[in-house]
């Protein structure tokens, strides 16, 4: 009973003290008035787009929704590249950074990241068919003196040995046979010449021995298939070379000139792949360099490249394969930021209540 009364009194005194203190008044005001949050971003369509001096894009819409929910009043500055963006965050001049910042092990050691805000990854982009302007003569010579051609020549040489010997055995005793001598040499050369000619469907003569004729017909069929396969292979190789300049995947980038943005994860990846990284600050400069043929390819974030390929670059560029290195984008905070977990919770709630999906569809739904 006594303890109860004391507790009641203590609570009363506490309540009076708290309501009288100036700190609590400030706190109360803060709950009503939006907190001001300075943000650094970077123009990178469709994540961040600058239009008539205003910012829009997936990241900006996402941040807008988070700000609404957390009652934040946001103001943006833009950085020229991701390195400068991270520097702003590190310096503490801004509360957070948002654009297309990949969460990496090295960055995680220096910064705090929100929960992932988008799945991304590195992808390759090359000039498309129409922008190719290839050199067919050069392509042909390169193909003729290539390992592919050598391989086919080898297979052809091995293949002709079988019918040549059968025909040699059957034809050498035939009076009008295509092998005019009974000896292995030079008789086999006549047979080999016939077999080679037939394989490429250009035979000058036909065997006279009945069984040799059956063999010849079967061999002609083999020839048709052989030539068809070879043609298919040549066409495929040529097409790929014309479209992508021989770039079919990350392993083909070695030695090639590849545009990347400075300080990006793509720049690191391209150096690891032994390619010549050509660094630009704005992604638009990379698109330019690709069209001007100063570079052979661009390696960059899949969501950004896909957006360009589907809009401005439609028909003139081409994405090569699927993203070859998966990454996630996050909102980046200085170490120990109090805001980080609030933002992460808001982001996760938005995933759960559909707000995230609506923003996603606005920018990434296929049109
Ligand atoms: N996702 C890239 C990175 O974080 C973007 C680079 C950039 O903004 O240019 O490295």
State the order of secondary-structure elements, H for helix, E for strand.
HHEEEHEHEHEEHHHHEHEHEHEEHH
Q: How many independent structural domains?
A: 2
CATH overall fold name of the largest domain = D-Maltodextrin-Binding Protein, domain 2
Mean pLDDT across the residues is 88
CATH homologous superfamily caption of the largest domain: Periplasmic binding protein-like II
Largest sheet: 5 strands, mixed
Spatial strand sequence of the major β-sheet: 9-8-10-7-11
Contiguous runs where pLDDT drops below 50 for at least 5 residues: 12-20
Structural shape = rod-shaped
The CATH top-level class label of the largest domain: Alpha Beta
Q: In what range is the share of β-strand residues?
A: 15-25%
Report the bound ligands by name, code or SMILES: glutamic acid
Which CATH architecture of the largest domain is right? 3-Layer(aba) Sandwich
Number of strands: 12
- How many DSSP helices? 14
Separation, N- and C-terminal Cα atoms: 72 Å
Structural class: alpha/beta
């Amino acid at each position: 009973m006594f303890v109860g009364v004391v507790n009641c009194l203590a609570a009363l005194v506490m309540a009076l003290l708290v309501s009288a203190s100036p700190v609590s008044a400030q706190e109360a005001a803060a709950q009503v008035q939006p907190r001001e949050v300075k943000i650094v971003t970077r123009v990178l369509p469709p994540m961040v787009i600058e239009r008539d001096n205003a910012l829009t894009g997936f990241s900006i819409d996402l941040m807008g929704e988070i700000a609404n929910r957390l009652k934040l009043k946001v103001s943006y500055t833009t950085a020229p590249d991701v390195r400068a963006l991270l520097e702003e965050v590190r310096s503490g001049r801004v509360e957070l950074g948002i654009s297309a910042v990949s969460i990496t092990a090295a960055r995680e050691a220096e910064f705090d990241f929100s929960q992932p805000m988008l799945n991304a990854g590195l992808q390759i982009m090359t000039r498309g068919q129409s922008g190719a302007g290839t050199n067919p003569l050069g392509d042909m010579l390169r193909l003729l003196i290539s390992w592919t051609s050598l391989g086919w020549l080898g297979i052809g040489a091995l293949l002709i040995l079988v019918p040549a010997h059968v025909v040699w055995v059957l034809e050498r005793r035939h009076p009008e046979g295509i092998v005019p001598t009974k000896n292995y040499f030079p008789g086999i050369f006549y047979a080999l010449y016939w077999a080679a000619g037939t394989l490429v469907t250009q035979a000058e003569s036909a065997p006279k021995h009945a069984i040799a004729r059956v063999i010849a017909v079967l061999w002609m069929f083999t020839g048709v298939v052989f030539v068809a396969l070879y043609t298919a292979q040549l066409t495929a190789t040529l097409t790929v070379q014309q479209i992508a300049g021989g770039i079919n995947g990350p392993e083909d980038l070695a030695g090639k000139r590849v545009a990347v943005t400075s300080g990006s994860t793509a720049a690191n990846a391209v150096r690891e792949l032994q390619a010549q990284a050509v660094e630009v600050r704005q992604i638009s400069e990379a698109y330019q360099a690709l069209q001007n043929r100063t570079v052979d390819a661009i390696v960059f974030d899949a969501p950004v490249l896909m957006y360009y390929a589907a809009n401005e670059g439609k028909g003139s560029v081409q994405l090569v394969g699927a993203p070859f290195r998966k990454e996630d984008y996050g909102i980046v905070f200085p170490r120990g930021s109090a805001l980080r977990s609030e933002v992460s919770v808001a982001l996760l709630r938005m995933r759960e209540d559909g707000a995230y999906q609506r923003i996603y569809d606005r920018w990434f739904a296929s049109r």
